[in-house]
């Protein structure tokens, strides 16, 4: 059941619970009584359904459908792993009627996919169980002697009785918690939702698969570990825009109550990922000591109230830093390697390096194409950057200014990848949360122009990547001068920027075959954070607050 949606249900009249079944009846069957209700977290009241409401359901994204008997979807009956549905449309009067096109089709249960729900979602299992077991709806049934997450473990360790523990201060060693399925499990958020295959939201899975295969970093002995990884599968529970708060708290509480390692540090040496659009912006402050790896690095001083940031609702994680604490959290690049022909990145840079950074074929000054949302006058989406660019460039085109080599498009354009490779600069704003334009620019040799006020970029807070060597950073306030500012960049400067991009583009890609080194940079960032833990270099947010108060008093 999806919360906060209109739904319907049915009951076979006069039959005990043992004879009620879920194979959908014909909606006109007189032996069936139908009900309609609006699902809430609070108590739900069931009312007799009207004829129009019978068997009517609504998916997570609001799409209407009617459930039909399974045999309406053919002889396979959805392999008994889904529901047979026909899509409906909403009329102006609020009623629903069948869509003009589209035959009945299978809506698969969680963990299954395909036209007839006959295919398991093998990608739900980390590394598809590494050849050591069988994947069943996200659970690896491992062959002996393997066990654990992704069949990645062979042994369990216990300290020798009476032995004294010598803390490991030599090298990074990460222990991965094996959490039970009732605590964290990689099922899709809702029946019929197959967005588990969206690479960007599975960046944590990509990291986990590499970590499980990395014996130099990952340890099966928790007493040897100096960092601890909790894998909450939070996207499975909250999808892209909902806060992952409940799942993260569930996992943290379980680890704290069942293992000794969390409480001895207050969670400072524990980390987890949150790959939704806005990361951990709305995770409560009481678990703020945990190290978060996120794709959205908004850092704002929330003591300034409504003026602190563009984001709405306002971040609630911590008043001193909003969504992202640069002293301990890590910003990672999204896993986007399979999009936009990013696999061509090595060839792009091989040619650029051979030409000493020169690329005379780039005849477009700067390029952007994508969603703009001009109706968002509050500037929440993209922090107002896309809207401000659209308005400014529209005004320029109606003036005598030369914008013939500027390409800015609201929406999809053909030859998207080719246009990147023809452009000197590519605009890299964020969206409703994290964005992918920086990765696209880095993979196509187009110098990124980052316009993201208050937002840290991947591996920037750690000092692991020298952004000034391969990108330009502008503020939203610079948009009125963006054209002359970019024209003023010399060819020599462009050449040096591109050669430095050749050094660092791998930091934004995860697939090794693409030249990806994002995992290695992630390990370097974790090592940097580990040294801060050892040196107790966390700072004190109260000092920042007091300093701000002194500035307000004129000191």
UniProtKB/TrEMBL annotation:
Pfam families: Exostosin_GT47 (PF03016). Residues 106-117 form the EGF-like domain. GO terms for cellular component: Golgi membrane. Keywords: Golgi apparatus. GO terms for molecular function: glycosyltransferase activity. The keyword rRNA processing does not apply. Transmembrane segments: none annotated. It is found in: Golgi apparatus membrane. It is a single-pass type II membrane protein. PANTHER family: EXOSTOSIN FAMILY PROTEIN, EXOSTOSIN HEPARAN SULFATE GLYCOSYLTRANSFERASE -RELATED. Belongs to the glycosyltransferase 47 family. This is EGF-like domain-containing protein. It comes from Edaphochlamys debaryana.
């Amino acid at each position: 059941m999806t919360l906060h949606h209109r739904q319907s249900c049915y009951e076979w009249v006069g039959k005990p619970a043992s004879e009620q079944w879920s194979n959908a009846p014909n909606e006109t069957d007189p032996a069936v009584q139908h009900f309609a209700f609006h699902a809430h977290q609070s108590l739900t009241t069931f009312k007799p359904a009207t004829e129009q409401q019978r068997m009517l359901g609504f998916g997570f994204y609001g799409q209407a459908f009617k459930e039909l008997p399974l045999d309406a979807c053919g002889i396979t009956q959805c392999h008994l792993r889904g529901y047979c549905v026909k899509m409906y449309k909403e009329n102006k009067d609020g009623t629903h009627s069948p869509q003009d096109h589209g035959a009945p089709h299978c809506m698969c249960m969680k963990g299954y996919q395909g036209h007839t729900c006959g295919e398991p979602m093998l990608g739900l299992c980390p590394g598809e169980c590494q050849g050591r077991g069988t994947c069943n709806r996200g659970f690896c049934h491992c062959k002996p002697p393997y066990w654990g997450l992704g069949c990645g473990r062979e042994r369990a360790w216990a300290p020798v009785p009476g032995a004294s523990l010598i803390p490991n201060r030599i090298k990074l060693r990460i222990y991965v918690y094996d959490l039970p399925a009732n605590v964290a499990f990689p099922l899709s958020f809702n029946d019929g939702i197959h967005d588990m295959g969206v690479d960007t939201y599975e960046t944590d899975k990509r990291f986990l698969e590499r970590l499980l295969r990395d014996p130099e970093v990952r340890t099966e002995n928790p007493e040897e570990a100096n960092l601890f990884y909790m894998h909450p599968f939070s996207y499975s529970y909250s999808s892209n825009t909902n806060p992952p708060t409940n799942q993260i708290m569930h996992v943290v509480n379980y680890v704290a109550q069942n293992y000794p390692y969390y409480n001895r540090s207050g969670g400072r040496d524990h980390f987890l990922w949150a790959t939704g659009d806005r990361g951990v912006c709305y995770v409560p402050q009481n678990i703020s000591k945990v190290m978060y790896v996120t794709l959205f690095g908004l850092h704002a001083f929330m003591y300034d109230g409504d003026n602190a940031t563009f984001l709405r609702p306002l971040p609630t994680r911590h008043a001193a830093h909003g969504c992202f604490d640069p002293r301990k959290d890590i910003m990672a690049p999204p896993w986007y390697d399979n999009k936009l022909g990013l696999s061509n990145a090595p060839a792009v840079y091989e040619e650029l390096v051979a030409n000493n950074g020169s690329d005379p074929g780039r005849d477009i000054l700067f390029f952007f194409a994508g969603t703009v949302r001009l109706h968002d006058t509050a500037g929440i989406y993209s922090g107002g950057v896309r809207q401000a660019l659209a308005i400014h460039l529209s005004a320029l085109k109606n003036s005598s200014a030369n914008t013939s080599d500027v390409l800015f498009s609201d929406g999809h354009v053909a030859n998207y990848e080719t246009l990147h490779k023809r452009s000197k600069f590519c605009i890299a704003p964020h969206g409703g949360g994290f964005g992918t334009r920086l990765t696209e620019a880095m993979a196509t040799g187009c110098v990124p122009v980052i316009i993201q006020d208050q937002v840290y970029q991947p591996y920037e807070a750690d000092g692991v990547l020298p952004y000034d060597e391969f990108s330009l950073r502008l503020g939203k306030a610079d948009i009125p001068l963006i054209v002359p500012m970019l024209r003023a960049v010399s060819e020599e400067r462009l050449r040096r920027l591109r050669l430095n991009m050749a050094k660092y583009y791998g930091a934004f890609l995860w697939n090794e075959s693409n030249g990806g080194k994002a995992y290695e940079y992630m390990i370097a960032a974790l090592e940097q954070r580990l040294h801060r833990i050892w040196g107790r270099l966390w700072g004190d947010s109260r000092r920042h607050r007091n300093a701000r108060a002194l500035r307000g008093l004129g000191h």
